[in-house]
């Protein structure tokens, strides 16, 4: 009987215990891999989330909330600022590109964002839409790829929006003809001003792999048109700024901070603060992960201790037949490694499968796109660490038999 066949036979002899050990390793590896993929996606998504706009201007309040709402479409706007602030920004020589935005309405929970269509060219370059064209008139919209997929929207469809943000309402209400129904406000009732304003889908954006995939975009003046604001001081929600230089960004920030109730924020700093908070939370998860790893190692150890107790006479017979102590040692260590390797392979598959299942939920909530089948150096680290733990857990029981002479093994 070959070395490998002997190990396999020993595993099959204790099918239930071997299976439990494999499942323990599988669950641990899958959890560690899912954590790794999620963390990498958060970091990548945070960096891609704001594009070239290094400065954002908005109402005074939480810098984090301003950035999350403006770029990641999370939470409510901090407030509004006077429209004349945009004029000051455009007059500054340190500004390469700047776009005012208006927000505050939604369609089935997805935010409606008013912005000049040139925003897409500045941020994403000259990309071809999935269908249709960009908006040009008030009431026309382009829809993010994720929104279009989830709500079944096509160019030419029409809908009405609702005031505010409706968390968790990401679904389409269908009428008798199979078209999406109207959006609802937080109370579930239609508002007259929103109900009478009809949006027409002009185009569907390509997949951008940013939070913009889960938003609806229209002209800057939509909010004023919806609420019938035809005169007076028009307000905007925020201004996205692509500075011409770092020095220009600093000078602009200093100037804008002198305006009452207005703040200028370095986008990268606010995003870094968010990532740091995520890392702190990940630290707690890593402690849980280490506990899972320890439990998996204990599972392997107990499995092989049970194997040693069952197999003492078999090992003694092998020794009497001329097999060396090293051979006996390697059969037990090999069994532990094989069990661990089986759990490792299944865990990698389960981790990627779980990330695929959860990717839409994470993207819908935070605009973070997990790449479920992405391979990285973490895979090598996870595999090496798993096999090492399996080998070390196997070594103790194996050494116990290694130190005993053949007659005592046979008599035990």
TrEMBL record:
Stretches that traverse the bilayer: 287-307, 327-350, 380-402
InterPro entries, A to Z: ABC-4/HrtB_transporter, ABC3_permease_C
Localisation per UniProt entry: Cell membrane
Membrane topology: Multi-pass membrane protein
ATP-binding as UniProt keyword: no
Record's GO cellular component terms: plasma membrane
Protein keywords: Cell membrane, Membrane, Transmembrane, Transmembrane helix
Translocase is among the record's keywords: no
Compositional bias ranges of the Basic and acidic residues kind: 180-192
Coiled-coil portions: none
Sequence segments annotated as region (Disordered): 172-192
Family under the similarity heading: Belongs to the ABC-4 integral membrane protein family. HrtB subfamily.
Role summary: Part of the ABC transporter complex hrt involved in hemin import. Responsible for the translocation of the substrate across the membrane.
Assembly, per entry: The complex is composed of two ATP-binding proteins (HrtA), two transmembrane proteins (HrtB) and a solute-binding protein.
Name of the featured protein: Putative hemin transport system permease protein HrtB
Protein's organism: Paenibacillus woosongensis
Taxon lineage: Bacteria, Bacillati, Bacillota, Bacilli, Bacillales
């Amino acid at each position: 009987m070959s070395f490998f066949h002997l190990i396999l036979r020993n595993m099959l002899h204790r099918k239930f215990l071997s299976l439990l050990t494999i499942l323990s390793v599988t669950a641990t590896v899958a959890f560690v891999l899912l954590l790794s993929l999620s963390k990498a996606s958060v970091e990548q998504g945070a960096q891609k989330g704001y594009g070239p706009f290094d400065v954002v201007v908005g109402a005074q309040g939480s810098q984090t909330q301003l950035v999350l709402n403006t770029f990641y479409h999370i939470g409510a706007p901090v407030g509004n600022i006077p429209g004349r602030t945009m004029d000051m920004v455009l007059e500054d020589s340190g500004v390469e590109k700047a776009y005012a935005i208006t927000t505050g309405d939604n369609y089935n929970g997805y935010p409606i964002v008013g912005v000049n269509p040139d925003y897409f060219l500045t941020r994403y370059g000259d990309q071809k839409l999935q269908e249709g064209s960009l908006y040009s008139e008030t009431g026309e919209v382009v829809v993010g790829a994720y929104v279009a997929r989830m709500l079944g929207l096509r160019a030419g469809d029409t809908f009405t929006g609702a005031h505010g943000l409706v968390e968790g309402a990401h679904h389409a209400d269908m009428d008798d003809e199979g078209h999406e129904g109207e959006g609802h406000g937080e109370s579930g009732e239609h508002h007259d001003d929103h109900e009478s304003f009809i949006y027409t889908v002009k185009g569907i954006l390509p997949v951008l792999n940013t939070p913009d995939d889960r938003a609806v975009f229209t002209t800057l003046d939509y909010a004023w048109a919806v609420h019938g604001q035809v005169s007076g001081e028009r307000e905007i929600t925020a201004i996205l700024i692509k500075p011409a230089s770092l020095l220009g960004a600093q000078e602009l920030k200093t100037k804008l901070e002198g305006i009452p109730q207005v703040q200028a924020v370095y986008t990268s700093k606010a995003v870094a603060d968010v990532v740091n908070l995520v890392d702190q939370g990940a630290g707690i998860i890593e402690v849980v992960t280490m506990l899972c790893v320890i439990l998996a190692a204990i599972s392997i150890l107990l499995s092989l201790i049970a194997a040693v107790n069952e197999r003492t006479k078999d090992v003694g017979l092998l020794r009497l037949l001329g097999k060396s102590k090293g051979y006996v040692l390697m059969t037990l260590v090999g069994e532990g490694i094989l069990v661990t390797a089986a759990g490792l392979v299944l865990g990698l598959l389960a981790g990627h499968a779980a990330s695929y299942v959860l990717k839409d939920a994470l993207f819908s909530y935070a605009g973070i796109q997990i790449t479920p089948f992405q391979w990285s150096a973490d895979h090598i680290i996870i595999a090496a660490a798993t096999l090492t733990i399996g080998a070390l857990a196997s070594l103790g029981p194996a050494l116990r038999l290694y130190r005993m002479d053949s007659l005592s093994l046979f008599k035990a």
